[in-house]
Structure formats: C-alpha cells, structure tokens
Design a protein that fits this description.
The structure is a single chain. Helices cover 21% and strands 17% of the residues. It is α+β, with helices and mostly antiparallel strands. 39% of the residues are buried. The protein has helices spanning 78-82, 110-119, 133-147, 164-172, 198-207, and strands spanning 85-91, 96-104, 107-108, 155-159, 188-193, 213-216, 225-229, 235-237.
Length: 238
C-alpha cells in the first residue's frame, strides 16, 4: 500500500535555512489500513526477474514486472516505513554524488536535508531552494523498494528545483517543461535508475499515490526518465 494508505502524512515544507530537525512523517505507529477498492488486491508478484538469470548477471537486469497500483502487506509492511532512511543520489549535470541518512526515529536529520536541498538545486541557475520532504519520501521509498529485488543503484537526479528563468529557457529550447512547473517550487524531480526501465520505474512511483507522474521515453542506452511530483495525482506521457 502507498504512504497515504499507511496513514503517513508528509510534514510542511522545511526551509533549507532551518537548523532544527522536523518529522518527515506522522502517525509512525499507525496500523496499515485496508485499501479502498472494490476489487481485493491480488498477491503482489513484482519480482518477476527472469528465473534463469544467474547471480553473476543480476547487475544487468533491465526488466521487472510493473507493480500493481496498491501493494499488499507482503510487499510493503509498516516496518518498511519505520526504518532509517538513507537516500543515495547522483547528479550527472554536476558530477556530484552522495549517500545520506536523512531520516531516523521519526525525525529529519537537518544537516542531511540541507545537503539534499543542495544536490537537488538548480544547477544551471546556481540557486538552492527548500525541497518538499514528501518528495524525498517518494524518492527514498522508490529506491528502498527496488533494492529488495536486487537493484541497488543510486537515483539519478536529472532535474530537481528550477528557477522560473531556467524553466523558461527550457521551454524556449523545446524541452517539455510546464509553464507552472512544480520544479519551480521544489516539489518535483526528474529521475532515472540504472538497470530499471522507465515504464517500471514510473509504475512504481505512481503506486505511491503521492502526486503526478510523467513518463518520458527516449531511445538510447540510458533510456528515458520519470517526472515525480507532489502535486495532484495525474499521469501523462511526454
């Protein structure tokens, strides 16, 4: 089940200038609630990794069965959301990488949060802004979930926060960027995971039901990317 189904509510935006830790989620002791659906969820069998793949070739796995919209308790349990959260990211545009423990015992670790704000900054505009903690929950949940199936890769952050000027320049250059993009308010990121195709990654992000998901398919060895945001729930292909 997604974050909302577990009763985990994201905190208000944490200012990047803040030096005090704040909780990333509420109701940490809440019990999972039954999903509201007319059709009972079927047992999740996300790990449809080819049984013939040997341990030596796991590093080149490129296909996984997309997860269902609602995970069952066998796939995501309450303990998953209570364990410490370490987010590993790389930023190709600036050749930066980091592996940060940013949440533990129900609280955000402020120094790590500040560094994540910096890593998700507008590289072109050279400006940093607060990043919605709810977005970090989605990024961490995505990375931690696929790690259960042997895909332990950092999240590539292709775009995080953008200034309005940077967003306008992208539009003028023909890059798909909404006029009122949530990147401008630190509520969106364009991401990619090595060895995981865009369709599977997007299906997983969508299943968290935390905001919008854009599928951007591209030819080439790196494939496409996924836009994830904390706005209204919606899906599109670009």
């Amino acid at each position: 089940m997604g974050l909302a189904a577990l009763g985990l509510v994201a905190t208000p935006l944490i200012g990047c200038a803040s030096r005090t830790a704040a909780p990333a989620s509420a109701s940490a002791s809440a019990k999972p609630r039954a999903p509201r659906t007319a059709v009972p969820p079927q047992p999740t069998q996300l790990a449809s990794i080819d049984r013939s793949v040997t341990s030596q070739s796991r590093s080149v796995i490129t296909e996984m069965e997309p997860p269902p919209d609602i995970f069952d308790a066998q796939a995501l349990d309450l303990e998953f959301w209570l364990k410490p959260r370490t987010l590993e990211v790389v930023r190709p545009a600036s050749n930066e990488k980091a592996k940060l423990l940013y949440w533990k015992d129900g609280e955000v670790i402020d120094s790590a949060y500040q560094e994540l704000c910096h890593l998700l900054r507008d590289v072109n505009g050279k400006k940093t802004a607060p990043i919605d903690p709810k977005l970090l929950e989605t990024l961490w949940g995505t990375q931690a979930f696929v790690a259960r199936y042997g895909i332990e890769q950092p999240l590539e952050i292709l775009s995080g926060y953008r200034t309005a000027e940077s967003n306008s320049r992208l539009r003028e250059a023909g890059v798909p960027a909404a006029r009122q993009s949530l990147h401008i308010s630190g509520r969106a990121a364009d991401i990619r995971v090595a060895n995981l195709n865009a369709e599977v990654l997007g299906s997983l992000v969508r299943s968290f039901k935390q905001g919008g998901v854009g599928f951007y398919y591209r030819n080439g060895p790196r494939g496409g990317w996924i836009h994830a945001d904390t706005g209204l729930q919606r899906v599109w292909k670009g």
